[in-house]
Amino acid sequence: MAGRYVVGALGLALMGLGVSLVWAQSPYDVAVWLVGAVVLHDGVVAPLVLLVGLGVLAARPWARGPVRAALVTAGCLTAIALPDILRPGPVNNATVLPLDYVRNWLALLGVVGVGSGLALLVKRWQRGHRAPRKGRGELREKRPPARG
Fold first, then answer.
1. Domain residue spans of the chain
2. What's the pTM value of the predicted model, to 2 decimals?
């Protein structure tokens, strides 16, 4: 029970930190970020997930888990990396963005794709190597008629 209170207090502390960081920004920057997040989600991510759901997952319901996990993970990675990827031009301080974020983001998306592909192969292999199921009639017990 005490663990819940510790986790709740930690969550409240992190929310307070987030509010203080947002408060330190200009309202314009916060508004741009919020509008950009809504446009990115509603204009790009949600339609892509719906298209994949209609195209791939409707025909192959066994692939739902790995494909959903890959889409959610890729979306989170993109949301985290996007500000650094879209940062305009060179900066005066070379240590601000010392890494090649586009290359690293694409490498991580490749790892996610390979991982979900392996998970799909394992699921497909498991589907083909299951013990045959008994028919529905063999599984049911015959019940005596109900007494009225």
1. 25-85+99-127
2. 0.57
